[in-house]
Amino acid sequence: MSTLTHLDDTGAAYMVDVSDKTVTTRVARAEAYITMQAETLSMITEGRHKKGDVFATARIAGIMAAKKCPELIPLCHTLLLTSVKVNLTAEPDKSRVRIDTMCKLDAKTGVEMEALTAASVAALTLYDMCKAVDKGMVIESIRLLEKEGGRTGHWKAE
Amino acid sequence: MSTLTHLDDTGAAYMVDVSDKTVTTRVARAEAYITMQAETLSMITEGRHKKGDVFATARIAGIMAAKKCPELIPLCHTLLLTSVKVNLTAEPDKSRVRIDTMCKLDAKTGVEMEALTAASVAALTLYDMCKAVDKGMVIESIRLLEKEGGRTGHWKAE
Amino acid sequence: MSTLTHLDDTGAAYMVDVSDKTVTTRVARAEAYITMQAETLSMITEGRHKKGDVFATARIAGIMAAKKCPELIPLCHTLLLTSVKVNLTAEPDKSRVRIDTMCKLDAKTGVEMEALTAASVAALTLYDMCKAVDKGMVIESIRLLEKEGGRTGHWKAE
Amino acid sequence: MSTLTHLDDTGAAYMVDVSDKTVTTRVARAEAYITMQAETLSMITEGRHKKGDVFATARIAGIMAAKKCPELIPLCHTLLLTSVKVNLTAEPDKSRVRIDTMCKLDAKTGVEMEALTAASVAALTLYDMCKAVDKGMVIESIRLLEKEGGRTGHWKAE
Amino acid sequence: MSTLTHLDDTGAAYMVDVSDKTVTTRVARAEAYITMQAETLSMITEGRHKKGDVFATARIAGIMAAKKCPELIPLCHTLLLTSVKVNLTAEPDKSRVRIDTMCKLDAKTGVEMEALTAASVAALTLYDMCKAVDKGMVIESIRLLEKEGGRTGHWKAE
Amino acid sequence: MSTLTHLDDTGAAYMVDVSDKTVTTRVARAEAYITMQAETLSMITEGRHKKGDVFATARIAGIMAAKKCPELIPLCHTLLLTSVKVNLTAEPDKSRVRIDTMCKLDAKTGVEMEALTAASVAALTLYDMCKAVDKGMVIESIRLLEKEGGRTGHWKAE
Lengths: 158, 158, 158, 158, 158, 158
What we know:
6 copies of one chain form a homohexamer.
Chain A: E1 24-35, H1 38-45, H2 54-72, E2 83-91, E3 96-107, H3 112-130, E4 138-148, E5 155-156
Antiparallel strand pairs in A: 1-3, 1-4, 2-3, 4-5
Helix pairs in contact in A: 2-3
């Protein structure tokens, strides 16, 4: 651990030069949780709105956010994602929804930010759709689970 | 608590009709935390990169993300924010950075999503700038702190 | 019928000055159809993918496109939509899907383009999701059905 | 014809994995028509606005929309187009304008959606510029004419 | 002249709070020049490409850029422009093109940045279209000419 | 010098076909100046706001604008930048700030527009942050300094 890669010697931010890196297949997996009241979770997963668009909307928002990542994160490189998946799973025993994402491409730089951004925006979209009934929802533990490819190879969260 | 406002009777998503709501001043405050290794936090706040652009970049990213909220969250209304603030505070004793945001406008609908999105994207930007030295950082507790204005009036997190 | 409003005396395009127009409630309704093979329509509406995200994805895409209209149509004014609806209806007897949209706001200028753009992009999204099985789908009859508000008042397609 | 490629086993939408596809040169051609009153068409092509920006504006809008396709169509991959053409032809005998488009690139996935999106947005732009004089215009027959490249090779509309 | 309005007491950037400002009609006019070789200017204005899309493309790019201003300039407020004009004038005696722009709206904050951004992007678009024949073109004197409305009232460049 | 590359035989604009060009490493360097009152420059570089975000904000805005170039310049190809740098230097003796930029990638087409756009938007951002105290600032001499790579090879401004 030595220096921050996104700052030059004077501390000024710049987009890191990846010209000399090798194109390899890169995969990243991330997750996020959104905790809510039990009744809120029931409204999404059972009864009246069971077949409703809540999860579908969050899924689409997450996928589109992965593509928008270089517009959101100032020093991210524009990438050509070859695959994006956003899964949502209700965990009624913990009164929360788990979001897990996967992004993949062949490139000189990794897709960690895309996977994390997809998870974050899917969670925010769930918040948006349920906020009229439950403003106290909390988005928790957005983190990288695993990444493959590139010079530093495989990394997995403990 | 009754039904989800963003779904119609068939469960289809739509952008809620706010035509008949009143224009009032709306304020929302949100927060997020990003936990990292002690050394990572030191790199941002002390020594070599002390005057560097890390916090400034995250701040700008958060402000710009608040403006981009209706592009990210599918059912959000486009809004004309009159003020956005994003503060970052190092908390060395907890080895984390706290992000708190404030969004404000006069409108028929609230700015909760803008404040939450600003906090999320500022946190993601910190992750991006430090990920080369610390992939295990975790973004935690993104939540609404307080909102004012609108029909439901003042709300404050417990 | 006299002159095109979006061109000046020299024929140069410009964004029409609406400063002196009155803010009124404006509503526009539009529709589009996408014709496909009977088997393709069955795949969307029956059997294996019956509960799948096809219509939800098109609906979300249409709503988001309404918000993006001023980025797509060069001379459109930026607007603050107060409501957007996108409905999709399978018409198996005609082997097609009907898309109808509604956009609403209080503004100095109308929302016809938003309603038409939402219908077009919802139709294009259906094409995208089914193109692997049916490249010959045709999007037909994108048109304005009705508009209310503004100086010219109510207009309805014949 | 078997299953929709953009849905997984549970019916959830995702961005199709194209990692293992081959990079080939891909070309797609699409068309659209916009039918209008004879006087409207005359205003564009003759007399006072003959040298005006109407067709130029629609052409530029179409080209820019091709580049925006992955932002509009939720499950589209981001692509690096190497060529985009948008042609507009007045057909006075049929009181309409024909729009035909061509998109090209070297990639793992096709450019059908880009060509169709360019045609649609060029047509919508014509509608926008003429709507003050003719709200009854109809956009018709947006369809793929031809595509080359990729695993499925050459395809041509009947 | 005292302090920079876009920084707080600690020097951190934020979006200035305009909540308490009055809505007035605001107008801003800006200009830019692009100097080129005489032959390059001739290619645009005479002979073979006389009726070509060069000026129309720059005009459209400038208008669209005015709408994109809050996405480009980090601390700009999102605005609802009511009018945008971009004029291009060949000045053969000075071997340059003059671009002048006008933006207008009713708002709590001014449109100077929109007018300046429109002028800049129109100039950049001319550069793009002519760069294959003349890389040495220079964009000069982008400046505000005049602004009206708001607390500080009328301002005119010397 | 013969014809404009972005127009076809009829003078219609299109996105130039680069399919047959070779992928080479491309670099472009550009610059811009913004002249202001001596007091304005002092406010940025000395005293109260010395550690403030002014330069950082302009730097980030410039980097993000380079990525947005294909959205702004109608006929630009979408590119995957591998490196972007934006430097700001106060020149107190000339009462101005110099902005110089560098963009780099491996592609079939050059990055001149990205470097010029980054310089322009960084300058506009400085204008925005200082306009409350100095509306008379002028952005001057936006020009390409140098480009490498591609068929035409190395080019350097005189």
